[in-house]
Amino acid sequence: MFTKVQHVAIICSDYERSKEFYTNTLGLTVIEETYRKERNSYKLDLAVGEHTQIELFSFPNAPERPTYPEARGLRHVAFEVTDLDEAVQHLKEKGVSSLENIRVDELTRKRFTFFADPDGLPIELYEI
Q1: CA gap 37, 44 in Å, rounded
Q2: DSSP H or E stretch at residue 32
Q3: What's the DSSP call for residue 38?
Q4: Are 83 and 45 in contact (CB under 8 A)?
Q5: How far apart are CA 126 and CA 83, in angstroms?
Q6: What's the rounded mean pLDDT across residues 7-25?
Q7: Average pLDDT in the 16-24 region?
Q8: Which residue, among 113, 64, 106, 63, has the nearest Cα to 92 in the 3D structure?
Q9: Sign of the CA dihedral 107, 66, 118, 38?
Q10: 122 - beta bridge partners?
Q11: What percent of the chain has pLDDT over 90?
Q12: The CA-based dihedral angle spanning residues 117, 21, 98, 120, taken in that order and rounded to the nearest 10 degrees
């Protein structure tokens, strides 16, 4: 019935800061940017590869996300990479300071790490 994850929606606190992070730091490509005057809200569609998108939203006065990792709801967003060391180096060069040490998944034996977006949303890089 389901064929893929089409998009992941993220609500940010500072639209310009998050737009800069997702486009320039992470290198995602803008598909479309929409401003909805009646909502005082932006929606930025970003391509992740050929089949998935991030929808970045700004809403005035959006409540903060709980910071503890076991809160109900979306736990984190994970991006697949072919070279984890290269991806980590790129993020360091772009000034990302929240990078955790690289770990190995006990079940799959694959390497991964986490870092945070400007609002503290956990993002995983998972090496294939």
Answers
A1: 14
A2: strand 29-36
A3: G
A4: no
A5: 9
A6: 96
A7: 98
A8: 113
A9: positive
A10: 116
A11: 80
A12: -20
Place of tokens 């089949």: 51
What distance in Å separates the CA atoms of residue 39 and residue 69, rounded to the nearest whole number?
Answer: 30
Rounded Cα gap, residues 53 and 30, in angstroms: 10
DSSP state of 19: H
Average pLDDT over all residues of the chain? 93
Q: What is the pLDDT of residue 71?
A: 73
Determine the pLDDT at residue 112. 96
Residue type, 107: L
Burial class (CB in 10 A: 0-12, 13-18, 19+), 88: buried
The whole-angstrom separation of Cα 45 and Cα 128 is 25
- Residues above pLDDT 70, as percent of the chain: 97
In 52-121, the DSSP E strands lie at 52-58, 77-81, 103-104, 111-116
pLDDT digits (tens, 9 = 90+) for 68-103: 666 777 789 999 999 999 999 999 999 999 999 999
The reported pTM is 0.89
Token readout for 4 is: 């893929």
